[in-house]
Design goal:
The protein is mainly beta and 185 residues long. It contains 1 helix and 20 strands.
Length: 185
C-alpha cells in the first residue's frame, strides 16, 4: 500500500484491514477496523480529513477528497462501488454507493440508503435514511424494501469478509504464473 505523510498529517489504519498495494492514502486519512480498500483507490486528505467507518469497503478506482478544512465522513459499513468519486460528503451507516456515481460538495446521505450506479448527487443535496437515490441529477425514487436491504447487506458482508481472506492468501505471482495449457497453474 502507498501511505504518505503530508505536512505532518499521516494515515491511520484500524485493525484487521486490507489496503491493496495499489491504493493510495495521503495525509489525514483514518480507516476504521475491518475495512477493505481496493486497487486504484485514492484517498487524498492533504487539506481535508477523511474518516472511514469500521466495516466499510472502498472498491477499485474510487477517489475521495474534499474542500480545505472539511471532513469527509463515511459511516460504518459504507459500501462504495467501483469508480465512485466522493468530494466533501457525509454518509450515514451502511450507505451503498453504486459504481461510477459522483457525490459533490456538501452531500449528506442518511443511514441505509442506496445511490444507484452512475448517479450524480449535486452540491448540498440531502437525503433521508432508507431511500433509493437515482439519476443525474439524483432524486429519491422510493424507499428501500426489506428484501432490498437484505441484498445490500449480503453484498456488504461479502466485502467485510475480504480483508481476512486477502491477508491470508494475497501475494504476487511473479513471472512463472503462465497457464500450462490445461487450465492449471
Amino acid at each position: 500500500m502507498s501511505l504518505y505523510e503530508f505536512e505532518g498529517r499521516k494515515p491511520i489504519i484500524g485493525k484487521g484491514c486490507f489496503i491493496h498495494p495499489e491504493a493510495t492514502l495521503i495525509g489525514a486519512v483514518t480507516i476504521g477496523d475491518n475495512c477493505y480498500i481496493g486497487p486504484g483507490a485514492r484517498l487524498r486528505a492533504d487539506w481535508c480529513d477523511i474518516v472511514v467507518g469500521q466495516g466499510s469497503n472502498i472498491q477499485d478506482n474510487c477517489v475521495i477528497h474534499g474542500q480545505p478544512g472539511e471532513t469527509i465522513r463515511l459511516g460504518p459499513n459504507s459500501h462504495i462501488g467501483h469508480g465512485t468519486v466522493l468530494h466533501t460528503v457525509c454518509l450515514g451507516d451502511h450507505v451503498t454507493i453504486g459504481m461510477g456515481s459522483i457525490l459533490l460538495d456538501g452531500v449528506r446521505v442518511g443511514d441505509g440508503c442506496l445511490v444507484a450506479a452512475g448517479s450524480l448527487l449535486p452540491p448540498g443535496s440531502e437525503f433521508l435514511p432508507g431511500q433509493i437515490i437515482m439519476g443525474s441529477p439524483a432524486k429519491v425514487t422510493g424507499p428501500i424494501s426489506e428484501e432490498m436491504a437484505g441484498r445490500l447487506w449480503f453484498g456488504t458482508r461479502l466485502y467485510q469478509g475480504l480483508p481476512e481472506r486477502y491477508v491470508k492468501a494475497f501475494r504476487p505471482c511473479g513471472d512463472n504464473s503462465r497457464d500450462g495449457g490445461d487450465g492449471s497453474r
